[in-house]
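Thread amino acids onto this structure.
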């Protein structure tokens, strides 16, 4: 079942540079032709080192965020050390694949910093894993990815990468009716994670 048939939409992007990972998404929660909320949260930071950004059915987004928060905390308690970013992505992949016959209707971008550096991994609703330098998911992805591809440079600063993520979301908002109402951004660096909210314009 596609997002178009459900009438859900979103624009979510991830960008990896040398010293940071930036995740961003707009805040609109839509269903069919209706805007259900202008304050939806689709970007989450966990344990000050992981970020997960979603597009898809909002109830599934919230459920997966709660599950990952618990699982990551449990791993640290049981093992006395944090899980790697790739490990966190594989954990989420297993969770998603367990529900392959009744899947979570979501696309996911996992990012973070660990001992091996910065990682940004894009996933579909069944848990496939693709590590890349940048990605866009959701109904506004075709617009956002064009902006990112035209300006991305692996050596750009975290500040420039953050500005590029915001620019890509803003471009998608102008052309995708299911996206809008502000932009949430998570910036993850070796020093930790921070979250910001930007207006549409």
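Threaded sequence (201 positions):
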């Amino acid at each position: 079942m596609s997002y178009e048939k459900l009438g859900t939409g979103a624009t979510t992007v991830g960008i990896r540079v040398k010293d940071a990972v930036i995740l961003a998404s707009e805040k609109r929660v839509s269903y069919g032709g209706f805007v259900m909320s202008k304050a939806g949260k689709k970007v989450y930071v966990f344990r000050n080192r992981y970020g997960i950004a979603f597009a898809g059915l909002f109830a599934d987004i919230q459920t997966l965020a709660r599950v990952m928060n618990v699982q990551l905390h449990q791993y640290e308690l049981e093992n006395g050390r944090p899980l790697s970013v790739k490990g966190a992505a594989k954990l989420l992949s297993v969770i998603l694949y367990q529900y392959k016959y009744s899947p979570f209707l979501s696309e996911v971008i996992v990012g973070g910093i660990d001992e091996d550096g910065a990682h940004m991994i894009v996933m579909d609703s069944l848990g496939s894993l693709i590590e890349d330098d940048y990605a866009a998911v959701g109904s506004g992805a075709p617009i956002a990815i064009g902006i990112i591809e035209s300006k991305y440079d692996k050596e750009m600063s975290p500040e420039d990468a953050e500005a590029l993520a915001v620019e890509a979301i803003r471009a998608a908002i102008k052309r995708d009716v299911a996206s809008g109402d502000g932009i949430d951004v998570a910036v993850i660096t070796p020093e930790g994670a921070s979250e910001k909210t930007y207006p549409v314009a």
